[in-house]
Amino acid sequence: MDLIKDNFLKIVKLAKDKKAQVELLYSESEKLNLGYKQKKLDKFESIQSQIAGLRVIIGSSQGYAYTENLSEASLLNTFNEAYNNAKANSETADKTNKPVNLVKPNSLKVAEPKFSEIPIADKKALAEKLESQCLSQDKIQSVPWAGFTESQGAMRVLNSAGVDCKYKYQYYSAYAYPLAKDGESSKMGGDSMIARDFKDIKVDAITTEAVKRAKEKLNAKTLKTGNYATIITSDEFVTMINMFEDYFSAKTVFEGKSLLKGKIGEKIASPLFTLVDNPLEESLPGYRPFDSEGATSQKTTLIDQGEFKSYITNLEYSEKMNLPHTAHAARSPAGTMSIGCSNLQVPAGKDSLEQLIAKNKSTVVITEFTGGLHAGYNETTGEFSMPAEGLLYEDGKLIGPVDQFVVSGNILETLKKITALGNKLNNGSSGRSCPDVLISELSFAGA
Predict the structure, then answer these.
(1) In the prediction, which pLDDT does 113 show?
(2) Taking the C-alpha atoms of 405, 409, 415 and 420 in order, what is their torsion angle to the nearest 10 degrees?
(3) 210-240 burial, b if ≥16 CB within 10 A, otherwise e?
């Protein structure tokens, strides 16, 4: 018996009586978190959740409500709340707005995956090994964060136009962030990995890279103020991607908040730079065979060899702005409808990191934006001024680690300054897959 569908069909009948459209977005998830600290199991938590969010459409107005109780009575109450919200919005809506439509049924068939059953002892052993292998290394004082996560769940979309689609997911992730100490200098570095298959979590690779990143920061010097050729490592270029990805949203363009408004067909980046959104890439965590409206996912090229090719749309903004429908509807059951990317991919180039470094007399390799995305980014102008840490090279040779500096620029101008790309991609654990990126010049404020 399919109680969710049975109850939803009752809501559909009620919606039609009220001359409304209705859509249900359902998610369920189960997550296991294991963490070790000071050679003891520090975290062992299992979290389960299920939630259903209803969107009711009356003409051009929309209303939302959600519930964690999936009983018939609760879903009916949630529908009434969403309907009343849509009705209230319709009273103040611009009567000239186009009606909002639902996605129509399609022939999408999603294969039922077979989930692996891994003994809990194996999961604990992996989490413990992440800490113990870091602690066994010279100069590692402690491992503030080390652990393992298993996540699985399902997403489903049903609507009154007849859509009913569902997919399930399962993935594993592991991380280690050791603290290195040498004299008075203490620095933390880390690494993580995500995989669809438990056996693909490589503890040795994670801990080796995590220890390396922590130790290479020790005894850093203050960087001198100036302009430097800059390599942004693959993990940290993710931060740069996160700066500008919302500019591709047709909703952001419509609201006048995108720096890419009116720029389709223009060169907005280096000819070496291509950016693709690929929700069908199963190895990355943004995988989804359909979007939050139930539209079939597709691969979308956003930038092709520097040329801006496409905005991303959901059905509403595709129709409102007369743009191709790219199936990028994005919302959580507890949220409102928006537009968002899934797996953003920058293809690799041909140069090793050593070759990238050798291209300029002086090069700063940024290994970490220490304040994160919101430390100094203005999305209205694209200007950034962000604290960071890194490594200084002269004539291809390492001078040493540097810190206490701020790197500044404009994100769109920075994309135009890309002169080379590395030949290896990061592991894509953030849903952002990219190589090391060489920028011809950025401004640094240090000593």
Answers:
(1) 80
(2) -40
(3) bbebbbbbbebeebeeeebbbbbbbbbbbbb
> Which residue is it, tokens 């991919």?
345
Give dist(CA 140, CA 283) in Å, integer: 32
Q: What is the pTM of this model?
A: 0.95
Q: Give the pLDDT mean for 50-73.
A: 97
| Segment 395-430, tens digit of pLDDT | 999 999 999 999 999 999 999 999 999 999 998 888
- How many angstroms separate the first and last alpha carbons of the chain? 69
Q: Which of 166, 147, 141 is nearest to 156 (CA)?
A: 166
Q: Which CATH superfamily is domain 3-32+45-92 in?
A: PmbA/TldD superfamily (3.30.2290.10)
Instruction: Report the alpha-carbon distance of residue 433 to residue 210 in Å, rounded.
Output: 19
Listed in sequence order, the residues at least 6 apart from 144 whose beta carbon sits closer than 8 Å to its beta carbon are: 37, 177, 178, 179, 188
For 326, other C-beta atoms within 10 Å of its C-beta total 25
Interior angle at CA 198, CA 195 and CA 201, nearest 5: 60
Amino acid at 362: S
Is the pLDDT at 93 greater than 80? The verdict is no
Say how far apart CA 252 and CA 3 lie, in whole Å: 37
Q: Among 3.10.450.50, 3.30.470.20, 2.60.40.10, 3.30.2290.10, what is the CATH number of 120-215?
A: 3.30.2290.10
Lowest mean pLDDT among 246-250, 325-329, 373-377: 373-377
**DSSP codes joined into one string, 269-319:** S-TT--EEE-TT-TTSTT--SB-TTSPBP--EEEEETTEE---B--HHHHH
By the 10 Å C-beta count (0-12 exposed, 13-18 middle, 19+ buried), 27 is classed as middle
Residues 198/319, Cβ–Cβ less than 8 Å: no
